[in-house]
Design a protein that fits this description.
The complex is a heterodimer of chains A (about 260) and B (about 120).
Chain A lengths: L3 H19 L25 H24 L5 H17 L2 E3 L3 E3 L4 H28 L7 H27 L4 H29 L5 H33 L13 H5 L4
Antiparallel strand pairs in A: 1-2
Helix pairs in contact in A: 1-7, 2-4, 2-5, 3-4, 4-5, 4-6, 5-6, 6-7
Chain B lengths: L6 H23 L9 H8 L17 H4 L10 H27 L2 H6 L13
Helix pairs in contact in B: 1-4
Classes of the chains: A mainly alpha (about 260), B mainly alpha (about 120).
């Protein structure tokens, strides 16, 4: 089933879907730019009380995740966690332009949640932000709790439950349920992340809350469309190739018993 | 609901494909990323609170800062600095998440060779 040809086709299909979204306008193709820093909050934007509260919330959720992952063991999860973290890290490097001279990039929390469930997905996102912050100074170390919460846990928890709700409404075993559910969840989680980030900035006294809210939500309603498109493409890709990998696989993921093919 | 019997081979292909796609994105596409300020940067510029970012954050005191200036490997020609940073970062994220998963999950079950279906698997529709 998973031959070299399959691999080539799969990679090609993904690339052709991703290229139009990711590649910069032609005029800038020849130039080399380091990716700009992300929705990642740098040290200095949040005050100590807000940093402390966000750290406590993030650590508490991560502790719950550790316990749940331990209890809800699935064989395939360990390598899949590595692969998912690698993809989210790589995708976060690719800022896509949005109209108005701004850019955005995938956060990936919803994707991680859909693929691995909220528990293992949260651990994956945490790993990504640790690497970004420690290795590449992307996102402050002191505010890492806030970054893990905003860009990771909102996607893996809120995004996941939005996804599950929409998916159940459309049909648990239907591709449309997965794609529409994950797209709506991805968009909503980016917008919620922007709201929470604005709230943190406002509470820290960095910028007036109402001004921050309008600006952050405005841009991220557009950036969230990119998140929705990339998440939907990735989910479709996994559905077509290895649907059994999903945390809650569709029934077609057990094709052997249905098709009568004897392995 | 038992799964196909050779998880090791399909797992190898899964890891190869997934990591391969991630590396292609991080190494080959990263130089083309938009250089426009992203959402928060843009807001920080527009609302003029950009200067509040700590000019000497804690991350610059780590030894990694001598290796990487944000997403650029130091000491190599500019065109390959970001792709190489992408390569290292993708592998680091891969290894760290794998390691966390390995540490958290009980090794005894992995050796039993039987896949445990998700506890909350959806059986009704």
């Amino acid at each position: 089933m998973f031959t070299g040809k399959w691999f080539a086709e799969a990679a090609l299909s993904l690339m052709t879907h991703l290229f139009p979204v990711l590649i910069h306008p032609l005029g800038e193709l020849g130039l080399i730019f380091p990716p700009s820093l992300a929705l990642h909050i740098p040290d200095g934007f949040l005050n100590p009380p807000v940093m402390l509260v966000t750290w406590v919330v993030a650590i508490a959720l991560i502790a719950v995740c550790l316990r749940q992952v331990k209890a809800d063991y699935q064989d395939r999860m360990v390598p899949l966690m590595g692969v998912c973290a690698a993809f989210v890290f790589a995708a976060q490097m690719i800022n896509f332009p949005i109209p108005g001279g701004t850019s955005g990039h995938l956060l990936g929390g919803t994707l991680a949640g859909v693929l691995l469930g909220p528990w293992a997905g949260s651990l994956v996102m945490t790993a990504v932000f640790i690497v970004q912050s420690l290795f590449f100074q992307d996102g402050g170390i002191l505010v890492m709790g806030a970054n893990i919460f905003n860009m990771g846990l909102i996607g893996t928890f809120f995004g996941y439950y939005v996804f599950q709700t929409v998916r159940r409404t459309i049909g648990h075993n239907r591709l449309a349920g997965m794609v529409i559910g994950s797209a709506i969840a991805a968009w909503a989680s980016v917008v919620l992340a922007a709201v929470i980030c604005a709230l943190q900035l406002g509470l820290s006294g960095t910028v007036p809350l109402s001004v921050a809210l309008v600006a952050m939500v405005g841009w991220h309603m557009v950036i969230g469309i990119g998140e929705a498109i990339i998440t939907a493409i990735a989910v479709t890709f996994i559905w077509r190739t290895r649907p059994d990998l999903f945390y809650r696989p569709p029934r077609k993921a057990v094709p052997l018993s249905h098709s009568g093919i004897v392995e | 609901m038992s799964h196909p019997t050779h998880p090791s081979r399909s797992n190898r292909i899964l890891i190869g494909t997934g990591l391969g796609i991630a590396l292609i994105i991080a190494v080959l596409l990263s130089p083309f990323a938009s250089q426009h300020p992203d959402g928060l940067d843009r807001v920080a510029q527009d609302l003029a609170f950009e200067h509040k970012a700590n000019p000497e954050p804690a991350a610059q005191k780590l030894p990694f800062y001598r290796l990487f200036d944000e997403y650029a490997l130091r000491g190599v020609p500019a065109p390959i600095a970001t792709p190489l940073a992408g390569l290292v970062g993708t592998l680091a994220a891969f290894g760290l998440a794998w390691g966390i998963g390995k540490l958290v999950m009980r090794p005894t079950l992995a050796e039993a060779g039987e896949q445990v279906p998700p506890a909350n698997d959806e059986t009704q529709d």
